[in-house]
Amino acid sequence: MRSPVSWRVAAPLSVLLALLGGCAATGDNKPATTASTSAGPVALTNCGTPVTVTKPPARAVTMNQSATEIMLALGLQDRMAGTAYLDDQVLPAYAAAYAKVPVLAKEYPSKEKLLDIAPDFVYASFASAFSDEGVGDRADWQKLGVGTYVSAAGCPKDTRPAKLAMDDVLAEFREIAAIFGVGERAEALIADQQERIAKVSAGAKGTRVLWWDAGNDAPSAGACCGSPAMIMSAAGVTNIFADLNGSWADTSWETVVERNPGVIVLIDASWDPAAAKQAFLEKHATLKDLPAVKAKRYVVLDFSSTSAGVRNVLAVEALARGVGGVGN
Amino acid sequence: MVAVVVVLAGGLLLSVAAAVTVGPADLSLGTVWLVITNHLGLTSADVPLLRDHIVWELRLPRVLGAAVVGAGLAASGAVMQTVTRNPLADPYLLGVSSGASLGAVAVLVLGLGAGAAALTGGAFAGALAAFAVVVAAAGRQAVLRPTRVVLAGVAVAQLCAALTSFVIIWAADPHATQSITFWLSGSLARADWAALGWAAPVLAAVFAVILWFARALNAFAFGEEAAAALGVAVGRVRWLLLVTTALLTAVLVAISGAIGFVGLLLPHAARRFTGPDHRRLLPIVVLAGAIFLIWVDTAARTLFEPRELPVGVLTALLGVPAFVLLLRRRDGNA
Description:
The structure holds two protein chains of two kinds. In chain A, the strands form three sheets. In chain A, strands 9, 10, 11, 12, 13 and 14 form a six-stranded mixed sheet that branches. Chain A has a five-stranded parallel sheet with strand order 6-5-4-7-8, with helices on both faces. Chain A is elongated. In chain A, helix 4 (about 95-100) links the parallel strand 5 and strand 6 (about 105). Chain A contains 13 helices and 14 strands. Chain A is an alpha/beta fold. By secondary structure, chain B is mostly helical. Chain B has a single domain (about 1-334), classed as ABC transporter involved in vitamin B12 uptake, BtuC. In chain B, helix 3 packs antiparallel against helix 11 (about 235-255), helix 4 runs parallel beside helix 6 and helix 12 (about 260-275) crosses helix 13. Chain B is globular and about 65 Å long. The two termini of chain B are about 25 Å apart. The relative contact order of chain B is 0.16. At the A-B interface, helix 10 and helix 11 of A face helix 3 and helix 7 of B.
């Protein structure tokens, strides 16, 4: 459903576009192949919204870190007119490419600011980017002829995958690459990530994991169906809160004690650092005596590596290795 | 009257005893009681450490915390309603809860400190600061006109709410906002022995003060001229009661966030049974508040277990229909 619905190569027009595309891609260290220069209109359905991109975008704007990093991983920085909203720093491997792209705002830019950039494609990780706190309704941008795209994991609830899987994330790489006419780059990226996941996931089998995202009163834990569950599943561990609906859910320490996790994932975010979480656990009258806390069986994951994107593989590797490393 | 208090006190003990046996973890009645008798030095049975903690460190302080917060809010509400002669008054009338929210959010979002203690401290400081601003804004004339205090309270509450929104929108991440929202909606999850250690004595002291002034409160109910005629130093007593209840509310809100409707609803409900005499009303409203919040919080932590609801959401869900019912019955009687 989220793969390209139709591929058409509009021959005469695309010759001109191909020349432009070829020029635009010359600063790129990956070779601009014939596949990238023969791109025609791409039509697909994204979050239930039909999106048609008549030619590979040349002035794309990304919002949210995952979308930005997927673009950089596909070597598309030369097609980016702007970017906004990082949770932390972009991956070091992409820092040089990122530096070439203008940063429009610390969080979401205003609609006016984005109009001023005159983008031809707007790509965000979360539907909130296209809300009033962000740049306004997707439909308005589509009417202006600006293509829009939201990560499957960030779609509004009714069009989100019922249970997010790594394949949904990999499909996003493929769709974005298709839109920009660089399909073969996605295949290389996907093959690399699949290989890395396969290499680590066998060792972690069955370890029972609490994924603690945030909150001290009612801990917000990774639930059945979002990116935390996806990463735990890919790493081969068992989520102690797999019975809760949604991506994250507020639960209680009493239940955590009862379910007694073997390993605790501490999400590290600027607003709720892993070190503070660890200190809380080790000072808490009850939690300090949990076997996992006593033995300091923690795995620290950056928040940015847990929203659907190219970093998920890092989280999978860290979780699987962390669990394997502490033994079980 | 004594019989009612005895019955309610018994009901409170039973409520604590029953609520502590209910929770998301599947513990048998026997285990729960063994843990409690162990800690009271009556038995010395072997209970696995984590089960012991679930009962003694998580459930019991929380149930007692619900009792203390419920009792305190109900008492403060009763006093506020009488002193300001305003049936809509509640413990948060003087900007205390919005000040506490602002303080807590500032701590959480701006990283002014880490951990639960910092949040409680921030909330308490915010509550006191807001109350101080209300007092300053109301000015000296307020001694004569309680409406000025109420209006100053409303204005400061609005200001704090706007600043809270500003801080959240300006600095917070959606994920940080989520845990703030949970706390702002009122939750007893952070009640522990340390919090009880200072909230319970404050409650006891404030309750002693307001009980001492029960006759003065009765006089207030007839209006200040009547109170003055009965020999009550209206201005002084009013300030003393406003300040002590605001202090109590600041302590409670720092522990539990702003739990709505308890302080508004229970005094009205209790008055239906006791009449306006505060010597009868105060003990009963305190016990009723404690029992009410114990059960609402028990529902909040077990209804959708293993998920947990903010208790303030449930007090509103139960409180609003009860309030409407109360209003209708009062109209019917009139």
